[in-house]
Amino acid sequence: MIAEFLTWIRFLIFRKKHSELDDELRFHLEQSIAAKVAAGVSPSDARRQSMIEFGGIETAREQCDRQRPGWWAGIISQDARYAIRSILTHRWFSAAIVATLALGIGLNTMVFTLVNAVLLKPYPVPNGDRLVSIAGRNLSSDDRSLPFSYPDFQDYKAQASSFEFFEAVTSEPGVLSEPGNPPDQYQLVRTTAGIFSMVRTKAFLGRTFLPADAQSASAPVVVIGYNVWQERYAGLTGVIGRQVRVNGQPASIIGVMPKGFRFPDNVDLWMPLLPMPNLDKRDSRTLWGYGILKPGVTSQRAATELDGIAGRIASQFPANKGLGMSVLTFQQRVNGGPIRIVFLLMLAAVGFVLLIACADVANMMLSRSLNRQREMSIRTALGASRWRIVRQLLIESVFLSTLGGILGLGLAASGIHWFDLATSTIRPTWILFTMNYTVFGYFAALCILSGLLFGILPALRSSKINVVDVLKEGTLNVTGHRGAWLSSALVVFQFALTLVLLTGAGIFVRSLLDRLAVNPFIPADQITTARLHLPEERYKDNDARIHFYDQLLPRLRSIAGVSHAAIASGAPGMGSADEQIELEHFPIANPSERPWISFVAQSPGYFDTIHLPLQQGRDFNQTDGASNHEAAVLTRAAATRFWPGENPIGRRFRLFDDKNKPGPWITVIGISANMVQELQGRDHKPLVFVPYRQEGWDNMALVVESAADPLQSMRKTVQSLDNELPLNEPLRLKDAIAEQLWFLRVFGEVFLAFALVAMLMASVGIYAVIAHATGSRTREIGVRVALGASRRNILFLVMRRGLWQIGCGLALGLIAAFPLTHLMASLPNGSLSSDPSVIFVVAFTLATVGVFACWLPARRATGLDPIRAIRYE
Amino acid sequence: MPTSTDLLQGTLDLLILQTLALEPMHGWGITQRIQQVSKDVFQIGQGSLYPALYRLEYKGWIKAEWGNSENNRRAKFYALTAAGRKQLRSEVETWDRLSSAVGLVLGRAVEASQ
User: Fold this and answer.
1) Whether A313 contacts A155, CB under 8 Å
2) Alpha carbons within 13 A on the beta-carbon side of A195
3) pTM greater than the 0.80 cutoff
4) Residues of A with CB below 8 A from B71's CB?
């Protein structure tokens, strides 16, 4: 075995000399002749017969060569050298191809990196590929992300055999406070003690939980995140052991987690899950599970096992009836639904861009194959087989696409960086947009496949030539109509795909512009909002909260530069609560038939703050909202909806809470202009404003109008009343709205960029084809001009094919674009416009650009000097 | 007499190895020996002999050396290597198994095929 291998290596490296074989063959021939002469044949006949018997010496030599291990490597390297020489000879041509492919492959690599991070890559912890999210599931509906109770958790953990680890957390806002340091609100989880060992992460400073920390008698502890440590404690190591208050309760900091560790999702503070009064109830469902599957166990199997346990629990405890369990990866849990569809749409879009790029390059190669016919015929005449020529051309294509791909990697890296920044505030921190082996594999496959894709047609065409014709004629016009047909088809295909892409981008842009244009009366860049959460321990009831708000409002208004201040349950465009409504004298017995409204609870002065005009009736006064003085202001649209054609002032209605309990009768006292409170979704409910005395919530938004940024003063004012109250989500309204619309904005920009690249490529494609066609018809055009054809005739002659291609492309594209609008409009988050007018706008734009791209080379043709044109070639 | 007999794939290699097992030989000698021993049934075309010789050499089963022929001409002599001897044994075994199997299928006694 070893001897054979060594021989193989020896011959792989060292070649035999050709002369050796020649000597050997000559000896053989001489022996053969000698044998024949000895048998009585005349020497000349013997020689002739032997030569015939022997067959082709060349063939024998080649056959012998082919026995050598690795003989094909020589051939391939010969082809590769030839390819590089040809790429370098046609430098500009190659550069154009490489640039086109860099765009195509770069965009694809970028998007695949994103898709990989969002849909495929495991959570970035050790064993992340076996990490799963475990939640309850409603057996009778599609809802598979429900929390479960602590007793359920204990049963599952004790009985399930699929998991190496099974931990549970419950999350809530956590206000961190201590004397002399203003309070901040963070994301807090209370968790079972094993969570850190489950993801094999140790504390950066101090320690994580010990089993003793989870005993109710032990001293309360908190582990803080790296970001909290940096922002709130300026990275001081003395923070370990510090006594703080979390949501008003004392705790000591025992550890700081490493940078970037926010498990499970954007968490800042971790506390042990301690026995609490409600924790042991079966129907108190507040926990979310996380687990590590045992090796070889699929999440389906784990889910089936948990479902079985759930069934046993349900037969014992009726409260659990109809509940199952779901075990999903983080990606499946968080990025299912619309996010998944949008990322796949993105992948499809860049796939289209790459196809368009390949079509462009194929067209360039086709037009050059005309000029290379001589080269190919000479090689064929010298004995190169068709396969050899095709192979050499394909190697050239793959070289070009790999060059383009490598350039494209740079493009991909900057695209990923941009997307990373654009989504940094809204995406889960565990989604890391980095490349891994999967991405590089995809990238390599793209380079090779796109090289083969755009190379194969031109290569087959170039190699299929009639040697004699080409060498004899020496003209450029041998290809005839078949090549033209092929490149026309490619252009049509490009325009169809581009129209589809532009339509997708147009829908995003249109929807974004629609949303940005709402509520034009609100000076969004003058308004600052922040949320307050009044904890139940200190603000027991509605009266206590109203008392606090009533003290706060005059102080806010007295801040220098503040023109208006108010409190509302939701700032404009930031969403609202929904309740069912019943009009007086129109009772509806069946609760499911009652209409829904959105409502905003507000302090007096809210309409002035957001500059919402009152059209009829009056604003709220200080007594509105007190018992027996329940009042409401409706938008015009809501009033028209409920009392069409009547005066709504003085009418009464009541609202039903989620337990189907009716509230008191509310009198309509005013009508405002229309306003959009909900930027997401499509079916907006009628909007009703009520005084905050009626609905005094513990979580309200401060809405302050001020030219200068009043945030510092707002924080001081609030904390002068309650020094443990942080200001949450402080934002200029403009930025808050922009954040609400990130989905449309980010993906609108992404798809628009893709579509514009596609349009550019399609235009370059049609330009190149028309320019080439015009170039090869120079003599014909010259003759026509000489015979008296007008400029218009020539323009039409040259452009006719281009116009046809654009027309066919647009028609095909329209057929595909209509279903696309339906698909996008049906996305579950419902923020995309389904207006078909977008299609016509983009079709018109694309047609204009395409015609312009045709007209450029055509215009040159009309300026031809007939004498010179006829002498051309 | 058939001018050419289609040899089974790999059979030529076996014949060459067997021929060289007796003594080192040059290419012409190999064709003559095979033709003679097979009573003119196998006439190895030169176009297939030399590629086969090169293949066997590249595999390390035979090795070549220049020497002088019987009529004192420079000729390349091929000889079996140790690996080639092993290969020959296993190929002969395979051949025996195959031919006896074919014999069985054709309804001949096993002895008849040997």
Assistant:
1) yes
2) 29
3) no
4) 34
Closest approach of chain A CAs to the CA of B99, in angstroms?
27
Q: Which of A812, A855, A247 is nearest to A496 (CA)?
A: A812
Interface contact B46-A63, CB threshold 8 A: no
ipTM of the assembly?
A: 0.81
Q: How far apart are the first and last CA of chain B?
A: 23
Whole-angstrom CA distances from A766 to A91, A757, A843, A853 are: 22, 14, 16, 7
A596-602 and A687-691 strand pairing? parallel
Place of tokens 């003594």: B23
User: Within a 13 Å sphere around the CA of A686, how many CA atoms are in the beta-carbon half?
Assistant: 21
CA distance B70 to A801: 78
Residue A248 tokens read as 């008003």
Give A50 to chain B, closest Cα distance, Å: 10
Query: What is the distance between the alpha carbons of residues A133 and A190, in angstroms, rounded to a whole number?
Result: 16
- Classified as helix, coil or strand, A182 is strand
Q: Does B86 touch chain A (CB under 8 A)?
A: no
Q: Return the biggest CA–CA distance within chain B.
A: 51
Give the nearest partner residue to A60 out of B47, B59, B76, using CB atoms.
Answer: B47
Q: What is the largest CA-CA distance in chain A?
A: 138
Contact A3 B55 (CB under 8 A): no
Q: Give per-residue pLDDT as tens, A271-293.
A: 998 877 778 888 888 899 999 99
**Structure-token pair, residue A826:** 């049906």
Is pLDDT of A34 > 90? no
Chain B nearest-CA distance from A393, in A, is 30
Task: For residues B14 and A541, give the distance between their C-alpha atoms in angstroms, rounded to a whole number.
Answer: 101
Render pLDDT for A529-567 as a digit per residue (tens, 0 to 9): 999 888 887 888 888 888 899 889 999 998 888 899 999
**Which is it for the CA torsion A254, A258, A260, A263, positive or negative?**
negative
Detail the DSSP E strand segments found in A263-348.
269-272, 285-293, 323-328
